[in-house]
């Protein structure tokens, strides 16, 4: 709870004011039954109208003050609850930004979304709805019991019988409902996963006419959530009927025994009425406090899930970083091995060793699944090599800060991503303060200038989510332009011209060679035309380097390269 209290700290003032308002409100509410007893036993008994009016006015004043304090309490608890919720969400999101790919792989994306939204909302609502009864109920309970014993000690013994019964019921409910809440939140994760997958792949679903299949799949997880929610809430709502049963049983007992005391003259009617008011306050306090326990139980489940995100240690850190910069862009791999999980039996990459000189263009090719993308993702430390050493400018990459390393390396990933906003805003991700001249130069190299004028508003054209209103080839060229605008020392193109025709691809390669001669370029490709002019070509096969050479030497001596070349030539790609 220490971590949770750290978020409460910023809203300590509102929390204290809310508690003060709650206790003051409770005090005024507790006075009202005493005033009512005086009205009955003194005012009505003596037929003193002025006394009755005076006491009635006191009751109204107490009620109005109580109402005012209740409104203030609601305002302060809302500020406190929503503020703490916002702080937790911000902390989670900030923590997620420190994750490496392996950290993100540990949690599913839908689960992270649920932990960032639904779980935080649960805690937020628990604070907003739980502070008032949580601090009001104990005070009202203790004071009401004290006053009840003061009015009639013998009659108040009923509480000693009712309270343990209520405590046992609450213990049973809380013990059994907590694991059900955990299952329910897990079911929310599954629902979010199906929704996210469906929306992200809606074009594929439509193209394959799989709407009915997706509906069935969603109904399964939706029904699972429904069933888990029903089990959890069906048990939780037993709280109310159980308390009502005990409450009405207690009231009947008090009316029975209290009525006999009134008949024999050992108790006044006003005292019995006042006693009943305190009984209702005690029982309502217990009921409210039990609801707080249920809120707290559900919050603990959500907080545990949030804590897992906050306590996840990034697998890639800057602990060994020094104040050095990348200047030339030479790269060296020395006996590098990599696997995604330590428990995995086989390595994805095995004994990778090669050198890239500054300004060279390196091509990487190989069969599908040969770990080409995985290899280049090790250079900017998107994943950490399991063993071996990767160096840039003679320094191990862990000696550079992640920020500087990734600022110096521009990478166009295999899956191109554009964000909502204008074309210009997307390009400025490469360089926030880029001039129009720099933007146009980058777009010229990436051949974006061939289609930018055809867009509705040129650079100010609004792109849909993920760039849905531009073609695959246009999206790739925009991503390349964004990377070029970054002016990196190393440019990595991970199969990023696959949707571009060969003529346009040739122009992009020519522009990169002519305009950016000093930049180290690594091109991962499926087509030989994409890398045949490279200074070196690496052939990967099953996570190992099969051969290194130029287009001519590999075409002459390497069987894998020959197979790829001739199969593409027959397919009309060359």
From TrEMBL:
<feature type="transmembrane region" description="Helical">
    <location>
        <begin position="275"/>
        <end position="296"/>
    </location>
</feature>
<keyword id="KW-0472">Membrane</keyword>
<keyword id="KW-0547">Nucleotide-binding</keyword>
<dbReference type="InterPro" id="IPR039421">
    <property type="entry name" value="Type_1_exporter"/>
</dbReference>
<dbReference type="GO" id="GO:0016887">
    <property type="term" value="F:ATP hydrolysis activity"/>
</dbReference>
<dbReference type="Pfam" id="PF00005">
    <property type="entry name" value="ABC_tran"/>
</dbReference>
<keyword id="KW-1133">Transmembrane helix</keyword>
<feature type="transmembrane region" description="Helical">
    <location>
        <begin position="155"/>
        <end position="174"/>
    </location>
</feature>
<dbReference type="GO" id="GO:0005524">
    <property type="term" value="F:ATP binding"/>
</dbReference>
<feature type="transmembrane region" description="Helical">
    <location>
        <begin position="56"/>
        <end position="74"/>
    </location>
</feature>
<keyword id="KW-0812">Transmembrane</keyword>
<keyword id="KW-1003">Cell membrane</keyword>
<keyword id="KW-0813">Transport</keyword>
<feature type="transmembrane region" description="Helical">
    <location>
        <begin position="16"/>
        <end position="36"/>
    </location>
</feature>
<feature type="transmembrane region" description="Helical">
    <location>
        <begin position="245"/>
        <end position="263"/>
    </location>
</feature>
<feature type="domain" description="ABC transmembrane type-1">
    <location>
        <begin position="16"/>
        <end position="298"/>
    </location>
</feature>
<dbReference type="Pfam" id="PF00664">
    <property type="entry name" value="ABC_membrane"/>
</dbReference>
<dbReference type="GO" id="GO:0005886">
    <property type="term" value="C:plasma membrane"/>
</dbReference>
<feature type="domain" description="ABC transporter">
    <location>
        <begin position="331"/>
        <end position="567"/>
    </location>
</feature>
<dbReference type="InterPro" id="IPR011527">
    <property type="entry name" value="ABC1_TM_dom"/>
</dbReference>
<protein>
    <submittedName>
        <fullName>ATP-binding cassette, subfamily B</fullName>
    </submittedName>
</protein>
<dbReference type="InterPro" id="IPR017871">
    <property type="entry name" value="ABC_transporter-like_CS"/>
</dbReference>
<dbReference type="InterPro" id="IPR027417">
    <property type="entry name" value="P-loop_NTPase"/>
</dbReference>
<dbReference type="GO" id="GO:0015421">
    <property type="term" value="F:ABC-type oligopeptide transporter activity"/>
</dbReference>
<dbReference type="InterPro" id="IPR003593">
    <property type="entry name" value="AAA+_ATPase"/>
</dbReference>
<dbReference type="InterPro" id="IPR036640">
    <property type="entry name" value="ABC1_TM_sf"/>
</dbReference>
<dbReference type="InterPro" id="IPR003439">
    <property type="entry name" value="ABC_transporter-like_ATP-bd"/>
</dbReference>
<keyword id="KW-0067">ATP-binding</keyword>
